[in-house]
Amino acid sequence: MLGWCADLFRLAWGLLYWNVRKTLFQRGRGRVPCPCQSPSDSGRAFETHCEACIHWSRPARFRRVCPLLVATKDGLRCSADTADVRAFWRIALGYYGGSAVALYAVGVLSVFVFLRTIGYPVSILHVGLPPLWHRVGQARSWFFTEKSNRALEAGRTSEGLLYLANAYEFDPDNYLAGLTLAKNYQTGQPAHADRIFEQLLRDHPDKSAATAQDWFRALLARGNFDQVASLARDQTLTDPAHAQAWMRALIFATRQMRNEAPLRELLGNSTPAAATWHPLLKTELALRAGRSPETMAALQRPWPNTPPFALFYQVSRLIELRAVYAALDLLESQPGVLDEEARVTLKLDAYATAGAQRLLEAEVTALLGPVRDLPRIKILCAHLIRHPNANFFTRLSEKVAREQLPLNTETAGAWFSLLCTAGAVGDEPKLRAYTTMLKQASKNPFHALTAVEAFFRGQTSAQRVTTFLPILPLPLEIVYALIERYEPAVPSLAGDAPARE
Questions:
Q1: pLDDT tens-digit series, residues 323-341
Q2: Are 466 and 483 in contact (CB under 8 A)?
Q3: What would the pLDDT profile of 102-128 be if each residue is shown by its tens digit?
Q4: 3-state class percentages of the chain: helix first, strand second, coil last, to nearest 5
């Protein structure tokens, strides 16, 4: 056995060594002695000994290196004349190549069995073919994603996030894993969440619009207005399909952080995507500069070739300046420009600002239709957060109770909106009832709802509303309303304009 092993190592080394020596011999005829034949012999075929095989345990095995070695009646002899001694590289390549293939096959099979034993859904082709190696990472990512889903469903949040991080690490192309991870990190590890969102934007340009919107919601809920402004400015230029939503975000964020620089940067941009918004930007900057006559004149005249949000902006700013009836006249003069949700929102705001109780009552009554029309709940809740009215909220909550609105994934936003609205209008019994109901419906203890309730009761004076907004599945309009109510922006910079009676 030892002799066989020794000859095996001599074979592995000799295939290279003797072929190199023979090649050098062939190229240096007359100057380089024959490396393998005995110099004391004649050098003729079938008469000359082979010195290369004498140290082998079984010299005949040397024929695997050099087929010129043959058995004769006098023993092993070289079958070639000295001048004809040559290298056999094909044999060497065959042995080396075959050994490499065999080792590779054993390695592939071992890795495949190992991965399948763990539970990775891989094929042996995924392991064995280099062009398909990326599928192994995808399979590992899928495996950890499934483990993450099971852990999260069981309430083991930390374990679930760890598995999800592994899934995204093994397959950065797993967009859903990365997005879910970023959303879950936004509360406890916001900086890490932002890095993942940036990576998703960079690695998945085909999904950049959806990624940017999810990132914006996370940033807004956390109150990171500086980054909201930067993201909104960039997306206004690169995502024309959603430019109106981004412009609203940009105006809102720059007001919250008292910074006009992003607006001026966009105003100085001459591209068509930016030029569309120049009238709005000029008006906003004039408003912040306190140029009341200029602002009022700009707000009350039509802006040609501008998106619908420009009208929404004009009307809302006129209401803010208490030129309520001018705002309503402008709104009615351009029917069909805004969708019904935006029109109703502006009317409610206008009537509440003007103190037009009869008109406000009629509008609210019209909205108190079927509560299963979830946008109606969102509109009313956003309005009541901005303009608290206990009577209107009582009517809304009774309507919801009477029609037994279910609590499920689709309606969760409405129920959490009702919770926040109860706190905003000061209805403590309803605040307690909604908190208890949502806790009981959750698979997790949801202790954060206790902090939300304490905030609205005024029992946590140092807490900001953006402390708990990231954990609540609220519609975007409700998030805007809560921030406007509890983290107000710069007071009206242009002063109050007289309202028309």
A1: 999 999 999 999 999 999 9
A2: yes
A3: 998 888 888 888 878 777 777 887 788
A4: 70, 0, 30
SS (H, E, C) 229-251: HHHHHHHHHHCHHHHHHHHHHHH
**Cα-only R_g, the chain:** 39
Q: Which long-range contacts (CB under 8 A, 24 or more apart) does 77-81 make?
A: 77/45, 77/46, 77/47, 77/48, 77/49, 77/50, 78/36, 78/37, 78/45, 78/46, 78/48, 78/49, 78/50, 79/45, 79/46, 80/45, 81/43, 81/44, 81/45
Number of other residues whose CB lies within 10 A of the CB of residue 10: 20
DSSP at 22: H
Q: What is the pLDDT of residues 263-313, one digit of tens each?
A: 999 999 999 999 999 999 999 999 998 888 889 999 998 888 889 999 999
Rounded to whole angstroms, the Cα distance separating 207 from 187 reads 23
Which residue do the tokens 């591209």 mark?
Answer: 271
Q: At residue 144, what are phi and psi to the nearest 5 degrees?
A: -75, -25
How many other C-beta atoms lie within 10 A of the C-beta of residue 298?
19
Q: From CA 437, how far away is CA 248, in angstroms rounded?
A: 34
